[in-house]
Amino acid sequence: MGKSSRYSKSKATRHRSEANPAPKPVGEEQAVPIPPEVSRRMVRRMAVFCGIPSGLGLSSFFVNYYLLVNHVVALPSYFTLVESLTLFGLGFLGISYGVFSASWDPEPGSLLGIREFRRNLSNTLKQWRASAASSESSGSGESQT
Q1: How far apart are the C-alpha atoms of 46 and 53, rounded to whole Å?
Q2: Which residues of 93-103 are buried (b: 16+ CB within 10 A; e: fewer)?
Q3: 41 lies in a domain?
Q4: How far apart are CA 59 and CA 67, in angstroms?
Q5: How many structural domains comprise the chain?
Q6: Within 13 Å, how many C-alpha atoms sit on residue 10's CB side?
Q7: Per-residue pLDDT reduced to its tens digit, 28-80
Q8: What is the DSSP letter of 53?
Q9: CB under 8 Å to 24, separation ≥6 — which residues?
Q10: Model pLDDT for residues 69-121, shown as the tens digit of each residue
Q11: 136, part of any domain
């Protein structure tokens, strides 16, 4: 008896909350979804700018092992570490560059996306600054009581 009554109560609560959604605060902007073509463009760029360095980082272990075992080149022991960390670091940066270098407009941008990167990063920084300024101004009024 306990499980069914709990289930029915939670189900009734869920239906009530879906019928009457919570009101949004005044002045809060509604989130706009990313258009599918822009999303695909971002994913493609992230796959290229992150996937290539990360793939090279993984393959560097095998290549360096082959070179050491077959006595092709005498590599210092730290070389593989530095090489793989550098390539994985480039892959990590490639994720962000892939998002920011994609054109956020419906029409595609340039091949490398340098102009789009500058514009999108600038827009993001402006938005963060405006958001921080608005949260500071709303927070400072409450603390002066």
Answers
A1: 11
A2: ebbebbbbbbb
A3: yes
A4: 12
A5: 1
A6: 5
A7: 567 778 888 888 999 999 999 999 999 999 999 999 999 999 989 988 989 99
A8: H
A9: 30
A10: 998 998 898 999 999 999 999 999 999 999 999 988 888 888 888 999 999 99
A11: no
Is 91 inside a domain boundary?
yes
Q: Do the domain assignments include residue 20?
A: no
Q: Where do the DSSP E strands lie in 45-99?
A: none
Query: Angle at CA 68, nearest 5°, toward 64 and 71?
Result: 135
Q: Compute φ and ψ for 121, nearest 5 degrees.
A: -65, -40
> Amino acid letter at 11?
K
Cα torsion through 42, 89, 114, 101, rounded to 10: 10
Distance CA 29, CA 116 (A): 25
The range of the structural domain enclosing residue 83 comes to 35-124
